[in-house]
Amino acid sequence: MWTVVYMASNRENAEKLKSILLKEGLLVKLREVNRCGRKQACFEILVPESEAEEAHTILIEHISC
Hints:
Blueprint: E1 2-8, H1 11-23, E2 29-33, E3 42-48, H2 52-63
Antiparallel strand pairs: 1-3, 2-3
């Protein structure tokens, strides 16, 4: 089962985070969701449920920088 680990506010950020997770060896999917009340769509970053904790740790390290 795929689990959402992050909501990105645009495609560019979603792709950057996807790339980081892929480099760490995780499986990643992006899914476009509603437009978040703006012109741009938001994107869910999904990983397999078994990799969600690891994905959170990786994202926290990179988002905090």
